[in-house]
Amino acid sequence: MSSTRFDHLTREQLLEHIEKLEAQISKTPSSQYDSDSSELKHKKRHQHEKIDRPFDMSKYTKRKIALQVAYIGWNYCGFASQNKPESLPTIEDMLFKALINCKLVEDIEQSEYSRCGRTDKGVSGLGQVIALNVRSKKLRSDPAPDLLPTEKEFPYVDSLNRLLPPDIRVLSWAPVKDDFSARFNCTGRTYKYFFSRNKMNIEEMRKACTYFEGPNDFRNFCKLDPSKNVLSYERIIVSMKISPVEYTQTLGVGEGTEFYEVELKGTAFLWHQVRFMMSVLFLVGQGLEAPEIVRDLLDIEKVPSKPDFPMASDLPLVLYDCEFKGLEWTHSFCDSVYDPFPSSYRIYLHYSQEWTAQMIRSLTCQNYLSKVAKFPVVMPDKTINTIEKFSEEKPTITSTGVASIVLGGGKEMRINKYKPVLERPRCDTDDLKKSKFEARKKRKLDKQQKKQQMPTSEDAAETFEQEE
Protein backbone atom coordinates (compact mmCIF):
# COMPACT_ATOMS: atom_id res chain seq x y z
CA MET A 1 0.00 0.00 0.00
CA SER A 2 1.56 3.32 -1.09
CA SER A 3 2.18 6.07 1.53
CA THR A 4 0.56 9.52 1.48
CA ARG A 5 1.34 12.83 3.08
CA PHE A 6 -1.38 12.21 5.69
CA ASP A 7 0.15 9.00 7.07
CA HIS A 8 2.13 10.73 9.83
CA LEU A 9 -0.84 12.72 11.15
CA THR A 10 -2.70 11.70 14.28
CA ARG A 11 -6.47 11.30 14.40
CA GLU A 12 -6.90 14.71 16.04
CA GLN A 13 -4.73 16.38 13.37
CA LEU A 14 -6.77 14.76 10.58
CA LEU A 15 -10.03 16.00 12.08
CA GLU A 16 -8.61 19.49 12.39
CA HIS A 17 -7.54 19.42 8.73
CA ILE A 18 -11.02 18.33 7.64
CA GLU A 19 -12.60 21.21 9.62
CA LYS A 20 -10.36 23.72 7.80
CA LEU A 21 -11.33 22.33 4.39
CA GLU A 22 -15.06 22.52 5.26
CA ALA A 23 -14.65 26.14 6.34
CA GLN A 24 -12.98 27.04 3.03
CA ILE A 25 -15.78 25.35 1.05
CA SER A 26 -18.49 27.20 3.00
CA LYS A 27 -16.84 30.55 2.13
CA THR A 28 -16.77 29.78 -1.65
CA PRO A 29 -19.85 31.22 -3.48
CA SER A 30 -22.20 28.51 -4.71
CA SER A 31 -22.66 30.41 -7.99
CA GLN A 32 -19.08 29.58 -8.86
CA TYR A 33 -19.83 25.86 -8.59
CA ASP A 34 -23.07 26.31 -10.54
CA SER A 35 -21.19 28.24 -13.21
CA ASP A 36 -18.48 25.64 -13.45
CA SER A 37 -21.01 22.81 -13.56
CA SER A 38 -23.13 24.58 -16.19
CA GLU A 39 -20.09 25.28 -18.33
CA LEU A 40 -19.00 21.66 -18.08
CA LYS A 41 -22.47 20.41 -19.09
CA HIS A 42 -22.57 22.92 -21.95
CA LYS A 43 -19.23 21.67 -23.26
CA LYS A 44 -20.29 18.02 -23.03
CA ARG A 45 -23.61 18.72 -24.76
CA HIS A 46 -21.90 20.46 -27.65
CA GLN A 47 -19.41 17.64 -27.97
CA HIS A 48 -22.27 15.23 -28.69
CA GLU A 49 -24.50 17.58 -30.69
CA LYS A 50 -24.33 17.33 -34.47
CA ILE A 51 -24.39 20.53 -36.41
CA ASP A 52 -27.60 20.66 -38.45
CA ARG A 53 -26.31 21.68 -41.82
CA PRO A 54 -28.57 21.88 -44.89
CA PHE A 55 -28.09 18.97 -47.27
CA ASP A 56 -26.43 20.06 -50.50
CA MET A 57 -28.07 18.14 -53.37
CA SER A 58 -26.08 20.13 -55.91
CA LYS A 59 -22.94 18.15 -55.04
CA TYR A 60 -24.43 15.03 -56.60
CA THR A 61 -25.42 14.01 -60.11
CA LYS A 62 -28.87 12.67 -60.95
CA ARG A 63 -30.01 9.60 -62.81
CA LYS A 64 -33.36 8.20 -63.88
CA ILE A 65 -34.45 4.93 -62.35
CA ALA A 66 -37.53 2.72 -62.23
CA LEU A 67 -38.76 1.29 -58.92
CA GLN A 68 -40.87 -1.84 -58.58
CA VAL A 69 -43.32 -1.30 -55.72
CA ALA A 70 -45.49 -3.77 -53.79
CA TYR A 71 -48.30 -2.61 -51.51
CA ILE A 72 -51.36 -3.80 -49.64
CA GLY A 73 -53.93 -1.21 -50.64
CA TRP A 74 -56.68 -1.99 -48.14
CA ASN A 75 -55.96 1.04 -45.91
CA TYR A 76 -55.32 3.58 -48.67
CA CYS A 77 -57.43 5.79 -50.93
CA GLY A 78 -55.84 4.41 -54.08
CA PHE A 79 -52.34 4.64 -55.49
CA ALA A 80 -52.26 8.14 -57.00
CA SER A 81 -51.80 11.10 -54.66
CA GLN A 82 -54.83 13.35 -54.11
CA ASN A 83 -52.70 16.02 -52.40
CA LYS A 84 -54.47 15.37 -49.08
CA PRO A 85 -52.13 12.94 -47.29
CA GLU A 86 -53.76 13.44 -43.90
CA SER A 87 -57.43 12.98 -44.86
CA LEU A 88 -56.99 10.89 -48.04
CA PRO A 89 -53.74 8.92 -47.67
CA THR A 90 -52.48 7.14 -50.78
CA ILE A 91 -49.57 4.89 -51.70
CA GLU A 92 -47.86 7.72 -53.58
CA ASP A 93 -48.05 10.00 -50.54
CA MET A 94 -46.02 7.44 -48.58
CA LEU A 95 -43.54 6.97 -51.44
CA PHE A 96 -43.06 10.71 -51.95
CA LYS A 97 -42.45 11.24 -48.24
CA ALA A 98 -39.83 8.47 -48.14
CA LEU A 99 -38.10 9.72 -51.31
CA ILE A 100 -37.80 13.23 -49.89
CA ASN A 101 -36.69 12.10 -46.42
CA CYS A 102 -34.01 9.92 -48.02
CA LYS A 103 -32.73 13.01 -49.83
CA LEU A 104 -33.18 11.18 -53.13
CA VAL A 105 -35.36 13.97 -54.52
CA GLU A 106 -36.05 17.56 -53.52
CA ASP A 107 -39.27 18.15 -55.43
CA ILE A 108 -41.47 15.44 -56.95
CA GLU A 109 -42.89 17.92 -59.45
CA GLN A 110 -39.40 18.50 -60.86
CA SER A 111 -38.37 14.83 -60.94
CA GLU A 112 -40.12 13.78 -64.20
CA TYR A 113 -42.20 11.30 -62.19
CA SER A 114 -44.42 8.72 -63.93
CA ARG A 115 -46.46 5.73 -62.74
CA CYS A 116 -47.48 2.60 -64.61
CA GLY A 117 -51.10 2.59 -63.41
CA ARG A 118 -53.61 4.15 -61.04
CA THR A 119 -55.10 1.45 -58.83
CA ASP A 120 -58.35 2.33 -57.04
CA LYS A 121 -59.08 2.62 -53.35
CA GLY A 122 -58.50 -0.69 -51.60
CA VAL A 123 -56.74 -2.34 -54.56
CA SER A 124 -53.29 -3.86 -53.96
CA GLY A 125 -50.22 -4.10 -56.17
CA LEU A 126 -47.31 -6.48 -56.48
CA GLY A 127 -45.81 -5.31 -59.76
CA GLN A 128 -46.51 -1.57 -59.78
CA VAL A 129 -43.71 0.47 -61.38
CA ILE A 130 -42.80 4.14 -61.02
CA ALA A 131 -39.96 6.10 -62.60
CA LEU A 132 -38.25 9.38 -61.69
CA ASN A 133 -34.95 11.24 -61.49
CA VAL A 134 -33.13 10.64 -58.21
CA ARG A 135 -29.84 11.54 -56.59
CA SER A 136 -26.92 9.36 -57.62
CA LYS A 137 -23.91 8.49 -55.48
CA LYS A 138 -21.71 9.94 -58.22
CA LEU A 139 -20.44 13.44 -57.37
CA ARG A 140 -20.56 16.27 -59.89
CA SER A 141 -16.83 16.65 -59.40
CA ASP A 142 -16.29 13.15 -60.81
CA PRO A 143 -14.91 13.63 -64.35
CA ALA A 144 -16.02 10.16 -65.56
CA PRO A 145 -18.75 10.52 -68.22
CA ASP A 146 -20.59 7.26 -67.44
CA LEU A 147 -23.21 6.55 -64.79
CA LEU A 148 -22.23 4.40 -61.84
CA PRO A 149 -22.80 0.64 -62.21
CA THR A 150 -25.69 -0.67 -60.11
CA GLU A 151 -23.42 -2.37 -57.56
CA LYS A 152 -21.74 0.96 -56.74
CA GLU A 153 -24.94 3.03 -56.54
CA PHE A 154 -26.94 4.03 -53.51
CA PRO A 155 -28.86 1.18 -51.81
CA TYR A 156 -32.16 2.56 -53.09
CA VAL A 157 -34.21 -0.47 -52.02
CA ASP A 158 -32.88 -0.60 -48.45
CA SER A 159 -32.97 3.16 -47.92
CA LEU A 160 -36.61 3.52 -48.95
CA ASN A 161 -37.88 0.42 -47.16
CA ARG A 162 -36.47 1.70 -43.85
CA LEU A 163 -38.79 4.70 -44.10
CA LEU A 164 -41.89 3.13 -45.68
CA PRO A 165 -44.82 1.71 -43.65
CA PRO A 166 -45.00 -2.11 -43.39
CA ASP A 167 -47.74 -2.43 -46.05
CA ILE A 168 -45.55 -0.78 -48.73
CA ARG A 169 -42.23 -2.15 -49.98
CA VAL A 170 -39.85 -1.36 -52.83
CA LEU A 171 -38.84 -4.69 -54.35
CA SER A 172 -36.17 -3.65 -56.85
CA TRP A 173 -34.82 -0.85 -59.01
CA ALA A 174 -33.52 -0.55 -62.56
CA PRO A 175 -31.56 2.12 -64.45
CA VAL A 176 -33.62 3.56 -67.33
CA LYS A 177 -33.14 6.06 -70.15
CA ASP A 178 -33.99 9.73 -69.65
CA ASP A 179 -37.09 9.49 -71.88
CA PHE A 180 -38.46 6.41 -70.08
CA SER A 181 -42.11 6.56 -68.96
CA ALA A 182 -43.52 4.01 -66.54
CA ARG A 183 -46.91 4.46 -68.20
CA PHE A 184 -46.15 4.57 -71.91
CA ASN A 185 -43.23 2.12 -71.96
CA CYS A 186 -45.30 -0.61 -70.32
CA THR A 187 -46.06 -3.41 -72.80
CA GLY A 188 -48.51 -5.38 -70.67
CA ARG A 189 -50.32 -5.38 -67.34
CA THR A 190 -51.54 -8.43 -65.43
CA TYR A 191 -54.22 -8.37 -62.73
CA LYS A 192 -55.27 -11.15 -60.37
CA TYR A 193 -58.62 -11.42 -58.65
CA PHE A 194 -59.13 -13.99 -55.87
CA PHE A 195 -62.53 -15.49 -54.98
CA SER A 196 -64.06 -18.43 -53.17
CA ARG A 197 -66.08 -20.79 -55.38
CA ASN A 198 -69.25 -20.61 -53.32
CA LYS A 199 -71.91 -22.28 -55.53
CA MET A 200 -70.53 -20.89 -58.77
CA ASN A 201 -70.04 -22.91 -61.93
CA ILE A 202 -66.36 -22.47 -62.81
CA GLU A 203 -66.69 -23.97 -66.30
CA GLU A 204 -69.41 -21.47 -67.26
CA MET A 205 -67.23 -18.66 -65.96
CA ARG A 206 -64.31 -19.93 -68.05
CA LYS A 207 -66.50 -19.91 -71.13
CA ALA A 208 -67.48 -16.29 -70.41
CA CYS A 209 -63.77 -15.40 -70.12
CA THR A 210 -63.19 -16.41 -73.74
CA TYR A 211 -65.59 -13.67 -74.93
CA PHE A 212 -63.49 -11.03 -73.15
CA GLU A 213 -60.28 -11.99 -74.97
CA GLY A 214 -59.07 -9.99 -77.97
CA PRO A 215 -59.68 -6.34 -78.92
CA ASN A 216 -63.10 -5.15 -77.73
CA ASP A 217 -64.94 -1.95 -76.84
CA PHE A 218 -65.26 -2.01 -73.04
CA ARG A 219 -67.44 1.08 -72.50
CA ASN A 220 -70.08 -1.14 -70.87
CA PHE A 221 -67.46 -2.49 -68.44
CA CYS A 222 -66.07 0.75 -67.03
CA LYS A 223 -67.04 3.98 -65.34
CA LEU A 224 -67.41 6.76 -67.90
CA ASP A 225 -65.81 10.08 -67.01
CA PRO A 226 -66.68 12.78 -69.58
CA SER A 227 -64.12 15.16 -68.09
CA LYS A 228 -61.33 12.83 -69.30
CA ASN A 229 -62.64 12.98 -72.89
CA VAL A 230 -61.69 9.36 -73.62
CA LEU A 231 -61.68 8.98 -77.41
CA SER A 232 -61.52 5.19 -77.62
CA TYR A 233 -62.80 2.48 -75.28
CA GLU A 234 -61.15 -0.33 -77.18
CA ARG A 235 -58.72 -2.37 -75.12
CA ILE A 236 -56.94 -5.65 -75.85
CA ILE A 237 -57.31 -8.56 -73.43
CA VAL A 238 -54.44 -10.91 -74.22
CA SER A 239 -55.62 -13.70 -71.94
CA MET A 240 -58.12 -14.38 -69.16
CA LYS A 241 -58.08 -17.66 -67.26
CA ILE A 242 -59.41 -19.10 -64.00
CA SER A 243 -57.26 -21.48 -61.92
CA PRO A 244 -57.36 -22.94 -58.41
CA VAL A 245 -55.22 -20.99 -55.96
CA GLU A 246 -52.12 -22.96 -54.98
CA TYR A 247 -51.20 -23.80 -51.39
CA THR A 248 -54.70 -23.42 -49.92
CA GLN A 249 -56.47 -26.33 -48.23
CA THR A 250 -59.97 -25.10 -47.52
CA LEU A 251 -62.03 -27.88 -49.11
CA GLY A 252 -63.25 -29.25 -45.77
CA VAL A 253 -63.96 -25.90 -44.16
CA GLY A 254 -67.41 -25.49 -45.70
CA GLU A 255 -69.45 -25.46 -48.88
CA GLY A 256 -67.66 -23.69 -51.75
CA THR A 257 -64.70 -22.49 -49.70
CA GLU A 258 -62.12 -23.55 -52.33
CA PHE A 259 -60.30 -20.51 -53.68
CA TYR A 260 -59.75 -19.61 -57.32
CA GLU A 261 -57.96 -16.78 -59.09
CA VAL A 262 -58.74 -14.95 -62.30
CA GLU A 263 -55.54 -13.97 -64.10
CA LEU A 264 -56.22 -11.20 -66.57
CA LYS A 265 -53.55 -9.88 -68.91
CA GLY A 266 -54.01 -6.88 -71.20
CA THR A 267 -52.17 -3.96 -72.71
CA ALA A 268 -54.14 -1.32 -70.78
CA PHE A 269 -57.34 -0.97 -68.76
CA LEU A 270 -60.13 1.55 -68.27
CA TRP A 271 -61.40 3.01 -65.00
CA HIS A 272 -62.92 0.18 -62.85
CA GLN A 273 -62.82 -2.15 -65.87
CA VAL A 274 -61.62 -5.29 -64.06
CA ARG A 275 -64.14 -4.95 -61.24
CA PHE A 276 -67.07 -4.56 -63.65
CA MET A 277 -65.84 -7.57 -65.62
CA MET A 278 -65.69 -9.62 -62.42
CA SER A 279 -69.19 -8.55 -61.43
CA VAL A 280 -70.66 -9.97 -64.65
CA LEU A 281 -68.47 -13.06 -64.36
CA PHE A 282 -69.96 -13.75 -60.90
CA LEU A 283 -73.50 -13.47 -62.35
CA VAL A 284 -72.55 -16.09 -64.92
CA GLY A 285 -71.03 -18.34 -62.26
CA GLN A 286 -74.22 -18.16 -60.19
CA GLY A 287 -76.32 -19.13 -63.19
CA LEU A 288 -78.14 -15.80 -63.21
CA GLU A 289 -76.76 -14.95 -66.67
CA ALA A 290 -75.54 -17.06 -69.59
CA PRO A 291 -71.87 -16.73 -70.62
CA GLU A 292 -73.08 -14.97 -73.79
CA ILE A 293 -74.06 -11.92 -71.72
CA VAL A 294 -70.41 -10.89 -72.04
CA ARG A 295 -70.59 -11.05 -75.84
CA ASP A 296 -73.82 -9.01 -75.81
CA LEU A 297 -72.41 -6.27 -73.57
CA LEU A 298 -69.34 -5.97 -75.80
CA ASP A 299 -71.62 -5.42 -78.83
CA ILE A 300 -72.02 -1.63 -78.78
CA GLU A 301 -74.63 -1.63 -81.53
CA LYS A 302 -76.79 -4.06 -79.57
CA VAL A 303 -76.12 -2.48 -76.16
CA PRO A 304 -75.01 1.14 -76.77
CA SER A 305 -74.89 2.08 -73.06
CA LYS A 306 -74.10 0.27 -69.84
CA PRO A 307 -76.98 -1.41 -67.95
CA ASP A 308 -77.18 -0.81 -64.23
CA PHE A 309 -75.07 -3.44 -62.42
CA PRO A 310 -72.66 -3.00 -59.48
CA MET A 311 -68.88 -3.32 -59.32
CA ALA A 312 -67.19 -6.27 -57.66
CA SER A 313 -65.28 -5.73 -54.42
CA ASP A 314 -61.87 -4.02 -54.47
CA LEU A 315 -60.43 -6.26 -51.71
CA PRO A 316 -59.32 -9.27 -53.83
CA LEU A 317 -57.89 -7.25 -56.76
CA VAL A 318 -54.10 -7.09 -57.26
CA LEU A 319 -52.05 -5.40 -59.97
CA TYR A 320 -49.86 -8.47 -60.26
CA ASP A 321 -47.31 -7.53 -62.91
CA CYS A 322 -46.25 -4.75 -65.28
CA GLU A 323 -44.07 -5.72 -68.22
CA PHE A 324 -41.25 -3.69 -69.76
CA LYS A 325 -38.72 -4.53 -72.45
CA GLY A 326 -35.02 -4.29 -71.67
CA LEU A 327 -35.18 -3.51 -67.94
CA GLU A 328 -32.68 -5.28 -65.69
CA TRP A 329 -34.02 -5.25 -62.15
CA THR A 330 -31.63 -5.08 -59.21
CA HIS A 331 -33.18 -6.87 -56.24
CA SER A 332 -30.31 -6.33 -53.80
CA PHE A 333 -27.77 -3.62 -53.12
CA CYS A 334 -25.00 -5.79 -54.61
CA ASP A 335 -26.30 -8.75 -56.60
CA SER A 336 -22.84 -10.05 -57.53
CA VAL A 337 -21.33 -10.28 -54.03
CA TYR A 338 -22.35 -12.63 -51.22
CA ASP A 339 -24.28 -10.89 -48.47
CA PRO A 340 -25.43 -12.93 -45.46
CA PHE A 341 -28.48 -10.68 -45.10
CA PRO A 342 -29.33 -9.23 -48.55
CA SER A 343 -32.19 -6.84 -49.32
CA SER A 344 -34.32 -9.49 -50.99
CA TYR A 345 -34.03 -11.76 -47.95
CA ARG A 346 -35.09 -8.92 -45.65
CA ILE A 347 -38.15 -8.36 -47.85
CA TYR A 348 -38.87 -12.09 -47.78
CA LEU A 349 -38.73 -12.14 -43.97
CA HIS A 350 -40.96 -9.09 -43.83
CA TYR A 351 -43.68 -10.74 -45.93
CA SER A 352 -43.24 -14.00 -44.03
CA GLN A 353 -44.13 -12.13 -40.84
CA GLU A 354 -47.06 -10.39 -42.51
CA TRP A 355 -48.32 -13.69 -43.94
CA THR A 356 -48.07 -15.42 -40.55
CA ALA A 357 -50.05 -12.67 -38.86
CA GLN A 358 -52.76 -12.75 -41.54
CA MET A 359 -52.91 -16.57 -41.44
CA ILE A 360 -53.43 -16.49 -37.69
CA ARG A 361 -56.31 -14.06 -38.20
CA SER A 362 -57.69 -16.30 -40.95
CA LEU A 363 -57.42 -19.43 -38.81
CA THR A 364 -59.16 -17.66 -35.95
CA CYS A 365 -62.10 -16.77 -38.22
CA GLN A 366 -62.03 -20.30 -39.66
CA ASN A 367 -62.50 -21.77 -36.16
CA TYR A 368 -65.46 -19.46 -35.59
CA LEU A 369 -66.94 -20.44 -38.95
CA SER A 370 -66.53 -24.15 -38.24
CA LYS A 371 -68.18 -23.88 -34.84
CA VAL A 372 -71.18 -21.87 -36.05
CA ALA A 373 -71.55 -24.30 -38.99
CA LYS A 374 -72.60 -27.01 -36.48
CA PHE A 375 -75.42 -24.94 -34.96
CA PRO A 376 -78.91 -26.47 -35.45
CA VAL A 377 -81.47 -24.95 -37.81
CA VAL A 378 -84.91 -25.85 -39.20
CA MET A 379 -84.71 -27.02 -42.84
CA PRO A 380 -87.41 -26.33 -45.49
CA ASP A 381 -88.86 -29.81 -44.86
CA LYS A 382 -89.19 -28.98 -41.13
CA THR A 383 -86.37 -31.33 -40.13
CA ILE A 384 -83.50 -30.20 -37.90
CA ASN A 385 -80.05 -30.05 -39.42
CA THR A 386 -76.88 -27.94 -39.25
CA ILE A 387 -76.20 -24.45 -40.58
CA GLU A 388 -73.56 -26.03 -42.85
CA LYS A 389 -76.18 -28.28 -44.50
CA PHE A 390 -78.63 -25.37 -44.66
CA SER A 391 -76.03 -23.29 -46.54
CA GLU A 392 -75.28 -26.13 -48.98
CA GLU A 393 -78.92 -26.54 -49.96
CA LYS A 394 -79.83 -22.85 -50.06
CA PRO A 395 -80.50 -21.87 -53.74
CA THR A 396 -79.19 -18.67 -55.38
CA ILE A 397 -82.80 -17.53 -55.82
CA THR A 398 -85.26 -18.58 -53.11
CA SER A 399 -88.85 -19.67 -53.73
CA THR A 400 -89.95 -16.13 -52.85
CA GLY A 401 -87.65 -14.65 -55.54
CA VAL A 402 -84.96 -13.23 -53.23
CA ALA A 403 -81.51 -13.46 -54.85
CA SER A 404 -78.07 -13.23 -53.25
CA ILE A 405 -75.61 -11.63 -55.69
CA VAL A 406 -71.90 -12.36 -55.13
CA LEU A 407 -69.68 -9.24 -55.25
CA GLY A 408 -66.38 -10.85 -54.24
CA GLY A 409 -64.31 -10.28 -51.15
CA GLY A 410 -66.91 -12.05 -49.01
CA LYS A 411 -69.58 -9.48 -49.92
CA GLU A 412 -73.08 -10.25 -51.19
CA MET A 413 -76.00 -8.10 -52.23
CA ARG A 414 -79.56 -9.28 -51.65
CA ILE A 415 -82.35 -8.16 -53.96
CA ASN A 416 -86.05 -8.99 -53.77
CA LYS A 417 -86.36 -9.96 -57.43
CA TYR A 418 -83.56 -10.55 -59.88
CA LYS A 419 -83.84 -8.72 -63.20
CA PRO A 420 -81.64 -9.84 -66.13
CA VAL A 421 -78.87 -7.38 -66.98
CA LEU A 422 -80.17 -6.54 -70.46
CA GLU A 423 -83.58 -5.66 -69.01
CA ARG A 424 -82.22 -3.17 -66.50
CA PRO A 425 -82.23 0.64 -66.85
CA ARG A 426 -79.36 2.00 -68.94
CA CYS A 427 -76.84 4.70 -68.16
CA ASP A 428 -76.36 7.61 -70.55
CA THR A 429 -74.29 6.87 -73.62
CA ASP A 430 -70.76 8.21 -73.83
CA ASP A 431 -71.79 10.91 -76.33
CA LEU A 432 -74.70 12.03 -74.15
CA LYS A 433 -72.52 12.16 -71.04
CA LYS A 434 -69.96 14.28 -72.87
CA SER A 435 -72.61 16.68 -74.24
CA LYS A 436 -74.13 17.09 -70.75
CA PHE A 437 -70.69 17.72 -69.32
CA GLU A 438 -69.93 20.40 -71.92
CA ALA A 439 -73.33 22.03 -71.25
CA ARG A 440 -72.63 22.14 -67.50
CA LYS A 441 -69.19 23.56 -68.12
CA LYS A 442 -70.63 26.26 -70.39
CA ARG A 443 -73.32 27.21 -67.84
CA LYS A 444 -70.67 27.47 -65.13
CA LEU A 445 -68.46 29.64 -67.35
CA ASP A 446 -71.37 31.91 -68.31
CA LYS A 447 -72.29 32.30 -64.65
CA GLN A 448 -68.71 33.29 -63.75
CA GLN A 449 -68.53 35.81 -66.60
CA LYS A 450 -71.89 37.28 -65.63
CA LYS A 451 -70.74 37.61 -62.04
CA GLN A 452 -67.57 39.39 -63.15
CA GLN A 453 -69.59 41.84 -65.29
CA MET A 454 -72.08 42.72 -62.52
CA PRO A 455 -71.29 46.15 -60.97
CA THR A 456 -70.34 46.26 -57.32
CA SER A 457 -72.21 48.52 -54.83
CA GLU A 458 -69.48 51.20 -55.20
CA ASP A 459 -69.74 51.04 -59.00
CA ALA A 460 -73.52 51.37 -58.77
CA ALA A 461 -73.23 54.43 -56.48
CA GLU A 462 -70.75 56.08 -58.86
CA THR A 463 -73.07 55.45 -61.82
CA PHE A 464 -75.99 56.98 -59.89
CA GLU A 465 -73.96 60.14 -59.14
CA GLN A 466 -72.94 60.49 -62.78
CA GLU A 467 -76.58 60.19 -63.92
CA GLU A 468 -77.64 62.92 -61.47
TrEMBL record:
<keyword id="KW-0819">tRNA processing</keyword>
<dbReference type="GO" id="GO:0003723">
    <property type="term" value="F:RNA binding"/>
</dbReference>
<dbReference type="InterPro" id="IPR041707">
    <property type="entry name" value="Pus3-like"/>
</dbReference>
<keyword id="KW-0413">Isomerase</keyword>
<dbReference type="GO" id="GO:0031119">
    <property type="term" value="P:tRNA pseudouridine synthesis"/>
</dbReference>
<dbReference type="GO" id="GO:1990481">
    <property type="term" value="P:mRNA pseudouridine synthesis"/>
</dbReference>
<feature type="compositionally biased region" description="Basic and acidic residues">
    <location>
        <begin position="426"/>
        <end position="438"/>
    </location>
</feature>
<dbReference type="InterPro" id="IPR020095">
    <property type="entry name" value="PsdUridine_synth_TruA_C"/>
</dbReference>
<dbReference type="InterPro" id="IPR020094">
    <property type="entry name" value="TruA/RsuA/RluB/E/F_N"/>
</dbReference>
<dbReference type="GO" id="GO:0005737">
    <property type="term" value="C:cytoplasm"/>
</dbReference>
<feature type="region of interest" description="Disordered">
    <location>
        <begin position="426"/>
        <end position="468"/>
    </location>
</feature>
<dbReference type="InterPro" id="IPR001406">
    <property type="entry name" value="PsdUridine_synth_TruA"/>
</dbReference>
<feature type="compositionally biased region" description="Acidic residues">
    <location>
        <begin position="459"/>
        <end position="468"/>
    </location>
</feature>
<comment type="similarity">
    <text>Belongs to the tRNA pseudouridine synthase TruA family.</text>
</comment>
<dbReference type="GO" id="GO:0009982">
    <property type="term" value="F:pseudouridine synthase activity"/>
</dbReference>
<feature type="region of interest" description="Disordered">
    <location>
        <begin position="26"/>
        <end position="50"/>
    </location>
</feature>
<dbReference type="GO" id="GO:0005634">
    <property type="term" value="C:nucleus"/>
</dbReference>
<feature type="domain" description="Pseudouridine synthase I TruA alpha/beta">
    <location>
        <begin position="208"/>
        <end position="324"/>
    </location>
</feature>
<dbReference type="InterPro" id="IPR020103">
    <property type="entry name" value="PsdUridine_synth_cat_dom_sf"/>
</dbReference>
<dbReference type="Pfam" id="PF01416">
    <property type="entry name" value="PseudoU_synth_1"/>
</dbReference>
<feature type="compositionally biased region" description="Polar residues">
    <location>
        <begin position="26"/>
        <end position="35"/>
    </location>
</feature>
<protein>
    <recommendedName>
        <fullName>Pseudouridine synthase I TruA alpha/beta domain-containing protein</fullName>
    </recommendedName>
</protein>
<dbReference type="InterPro" id="IPR020097">
    <property type="entry name" value="PsdUridine_synth_TruA_a/b_dom"/>
</dbReference>
